[in-house]
Design brief:
Helices cover 45% and strands 13% of the residues. It is built from 12 helices and 8 strands. The radius of gyration is 23 Å and the shape is elongated.
């Protein structure tokens, strides 16, 4: 097996400098990570969106550190090339910097991640600086920050006014100054994302923020069409795997009900002498 060169934070810096795009996918398990990695994704984010996509919660808030570490370990085992980023869940970094360091360190030490992601701007810049100083690479997250959904009033467009857009630019600079190696920009106007990308010395990763960002991220389940419910405006489905899965399971259920699965040729038979002995034993 040939040696595969790992993507690192330095790789992303070089890509931005060269004007090369960055492809990031949010995945939550071993097979998903393996497929994304083999398909060439630069970064795999183990997002706290697993709360909804995998665990059935109605927001990201209930997901725990242990759940995040569990899924990050699985993703790390399925990844040979991509940079694995663990998403720090709600209250794992907001309490104080010491607790943030302990929790972030667990992603690297116990789960095999190469970096962590956390939400917020100037209010978390001190924590970001502390993590970076400790040796933990940090990806920032601005715009729509799902952990603050109760405070910002839902999953709505952010930085849509001049004042809030300028504040977001300040937040991006604060994160870059604190040592963040990249910043996710979620659901902000295309003009604001373009300005942040032009000004920021670190890579920007867009989700619902237009094509000007240095890279883009989509959730594994979204881009494969594995849900038939709500689909965000920015989501492009590259396949309809969900429909194919439901159709296949439906065929299986029907064949079981009809007695057509499994076919006899898919089963094993006893050797003739063992079968004769077995039947003789049944006779008494």
């Amino acid at each position: 097996m040939s040696e595969v060169k790992r993507v690192t934070t330095e790789t992303l810096r070089k890509k931005k400098a060269a004007g090369e795009k960055i492809a990031m996918i949010t995945a939550y398990d071993f097979p998903g990570a393996k497929m994304a990695d083999e398909a060439g994704a630069d970064v795999i984010l183990v997002g706290d969106s697993l709360a909804m996509a995998v665990l059935g919660y109605d927001s990201t808030l209930p997901v725990t550190m242990e759940e995040m570490l569990h899924h990050t370990r699985a993703v790390s085992r399925g990844t040979r090339r991509a940079l694995v980023v663990g998403d720090m869940p709600f209250l794992s970094y907001q309490v104080n910097a010491d607790e943030a360091v302990r929790n972030a360190g667990r992603f690297l030490q116990e789960a095999g991640a190469a970096a962590v992601k956390l939400e917020g701007g100037r209010e978390v810049a001190g924590t970001v600086a502390r993590l970076v100083k400790t040796g933990i690479p940090v990806m920032g997250h601005l715009g729509l920050t799902p952990q603050s959904v109760q405070q910002i009033g839902g999953y709505t467009l952010q930085a849509k006014g001049a004042k809030t857009a300028l504040l977001l630019l300040d937040d991006a600079q604060a994160l870059a100054d604190a040592g963040a190696f990249a910043i996710v920009l979620e659901k902000i106007p295309i003009e604001v994302a373009a300005e942040v990308t032009a000004r920021a010395p670190v890579a920007t990763i867009g989700i619902g923020s237009g094509p000007a960002c240095d890279g883009q991220v989509l959730v594994f389940h979204d881009l494969l069409g594995m849900y038939d419910g709500f689909k965000a405006k920015f989501v492009k489905q590259y396949a309809q795997i969900g429909a194919a899965i439901r159709e296949a399971i439906g065929r299986y259920v029907l064949e079981v009900y009809q007695g057509n699965y499994p076919e006899e040729e898919h089963a094993w038979h006893m050797e003739r002498d063992e079968l004769e002995a077995f039947r003789a034993g049944l006779q008494g």
